[in-house]
Design a protein that fits this description.
The complex is a heterodimer of chains A (242) and B (243).
Chain A: E1 2-11, E2 14-24, E3 29-33, H1 40-47, E4 55-60, E5 63-64, H2 72-76, E6 79-82, H3 94-104, H4 110-123, H5 139-151, E7 157-161, H6 169-184, E8 188-192, H7 196-202, E9 205-210, E10 213-219, H8 220-225, H9 230-239
Parallel strand pairs in A: 3-8, 3-9, 6-7, 7-8
Antiparallel strand pairs in A: 1-2, 1-4, 4-5, 9-10
Helix pairs in contact in A: 3-4, 3-5, 4-5, 5-6
Chain B: H1 21-55, H2 59-73, H3 77-91, H4 94-101, H5 105-135, H6 138-146, H7 151-181, H8 193-204, H9 207-236
Helix pairs in contact in B: 1-2, 1-5, 1-7, 1-8, 2-5, 3-4, 3-5, 5-7, 6-7, 7-9, 8-9
Classes of the chains: A alpha/beta (242), B mainly alpha (243).
Chain lengths: 242, 243
């Protein structure tokens, strides 16, 4: 479903990604981890074309992301993305946040969009907040709305860019619960996160990145049991210390 | 000080006989309002468009907007006015120049002052719009695009509504400035409020009353503008603070 082949990217002379390759099958949950600055976020932003890359080929649902003729807006409409800082639209009510792209991109009627939006809001446990504005919600609630907003587009796969990093600790679980639910329903997901509990629980594979390279791409049992690379071992021992 | 205050001067008939001196002031006020408001509307349109262009990922479009801003922000308003009024009709093809010069003098002065104020203020509005857009987190644009909105749609529905809210306070001061700046039009003979004030001095030798009246009228205009803009700000405020 997502095929990443030999992707390289640089800003001027600074190499951000070097020769990254990975395959994601339908229904797989891929957790991407690694130290900060290792290129994890950049890599998943390449998948929906938010970050351009100079070399390699990236194919999503049979469409080449890097090809100049590709209609990126059309491709992105079916690739959901959740950001570290939620990025809800602050001037729109929650329900309008959920509807705007359904109406403007998918061409749904307002009634259809609202119906679908409210259903998803219910799913993330926030029906009561439909008429509120993002600034009136907690971080955890905002992130759940952001997930619902992405789901409203009926995405074929979902990208998560450190979805819990900006949250207070007590709000992390409410967001992870929603993500676990999605994973168990068979949603194809690429998740950049440091939540190793989540990875242990639902990941199909774990990709470990360091300095713009994919150092390790292993099943979660192999990764947590016997990581091959020394760098991954160090990383794991550091984040699993406490 | 041996000054004869005479506030009744405003009720005195002018030498031409058709109106009082207060009538002159009011007609000046009318011209100032018409000039400033029409120039403001154009300034918002031009400044809004150029401000957006300055932020788009296209070197040519943002280049055009940059050149516009640099030209109109870095030269004195008075010089710009003289160029529009005295120089431009000479530079245009003869037929067009003659057509302009055959307009009635008031219209010539009004149009030159309107275009001048509009483009001068537009350059300042442009910079406000640009800084408003740039003050929004890059994430908002990414979020719009990630949902499948096109770049123009992302500007229309996501970026601009928030950017406009952010720049309302500085826009208010540009709006106030355009009324004050409109007084330069008196230098090309347009009988707006300041020019009427000076004409009243020439006719009556009552400078204090005249300029106090002009001052009060400008202050009233600007107080009204401030109240209106505060109402607009309160109206569009995002619940929960948002940004």
């Amino acid at each position: 479903m997502i095929s990443i082949k030999n992707i390289s990217k640089h800003y001027g002379s600074f190499q951000v990604l070097t020769d990254c390759s990975a395959e994601v099958e339908k229904g797989e949950v891929i957790v991407i981890c690694g130290p900060s600055g290792s290129g994890k976020s950049t890599l998943i932003k390449c998948v929906n074309g938010l970050e351009p890359f100079q070399q390699g080929e990236l194919v999503v649902n049979g469409i080449s992301v890097g090809a100049p003729k590709t209609n990126l807006a059309k491709l992105r409409a079916h690739v959901g993305m959740v950001f570290q800082n939620f990025e809800l639209f602050p001037h729109m009510s929650i329900v309008d946040n959920l509807c705007i792209a359904q109406i403007k991109v998918l061409g749904r009627s307002r009634e259809e969009a609202v119906e679908r939006g409210l259903k998803l809001l219910d799913r993330v446990g926030l029906s009561a907040q439909a008429e509120k504005f993002p600034g009136q919600l907690s971080g955890g609630q905002q992130q759940r709305v952001a997930i619902a907003r992405a789901l409203a587009m009926d995405p074929t796969c979902m990208l998560f860019d450190e979805p819990t990093s900006a949250l207070d600790p007590e709000m992390v679980n409410e967001v992870l619960d929603v993500m676990v639910g999605l994973a168990q329903e068979g949603m194809t997901m690429m998740v950049v996160t440091h939540e190793m509990g989540f990875a242990r629980n639902v990941a199909s594979r774990v990709i470990f990145m360091d300095q713009g390279r994919i150092v390790e791409d292993a099943s979660k049992d192999d990764f947590f049991g016997t990581p091959r690379s020394e760098r991954a071992q160090q990383f794991l021992s550091k984040i699993l210390q406490h | 000080m041996n000054y004869h205050w005479n506030w009744a001067i405003f009720l005195t008939e002018t030498p031409s006989g058709s109106t009082t001196y207060m009538g002159w002031m009011l007609s000046g006020l009318e011209v100032t309002l018409a000039l400033s408001l029409s120039a403001w509307i154009i300034a918002l349109l031009v400044g809004g468009l150029m401000g957006v262009l300055r932020t788009v990922p296209n070197r040519w479009l943002s280049g055009i907007a940059t050149v516009y801003v640099e030209i109109f922000r870095n030269t004195p308003l008075l010089v710009q006015l003289f160029i529009w009024y005295f120089v431009l009709p000479e530079l245009l093809p003869t037929a067009m120049g003659d057509a302009i010069k055959s307009l009635n003098p008031f219209l010539q002065q009004f149009l030159a002052a309107m275009v001048c104020l509009a483009l001068f203020t537009g350059a300042r509005v442009c910079e406000q719009v640009r800084s408003g857009i740039n003050s929004l987190a890059v994430g908002q644009k990414s979020a719009g695009l990630a949902l499948g909105l096109t770049l123009p749609q992302t500007y229309r529905y996501v970026i601009l509504p928030m950017a406009i809210r952010i720049i309302l306070p500085p826009l208010t001061s540009e709006f106030l400035n355009i009324f004050k700046n409109s007084a330069v039009a008196s230098t090309i003979g347009l009988l707006e409020l300041a020019a009427q004030g000076r004409q009243l001095v020439d006719y009556t030798a009552q400078p204090y009353e005249s300029f106090i009246a002009v001052t009060v009228m400008f202050m009233v205009i600007n107080t009204v503008v401030m109240i209106l803009m505060h109402k607009v700000e309160a109206r569009v405020r995002v619940p929960g603070g948002g940004h």
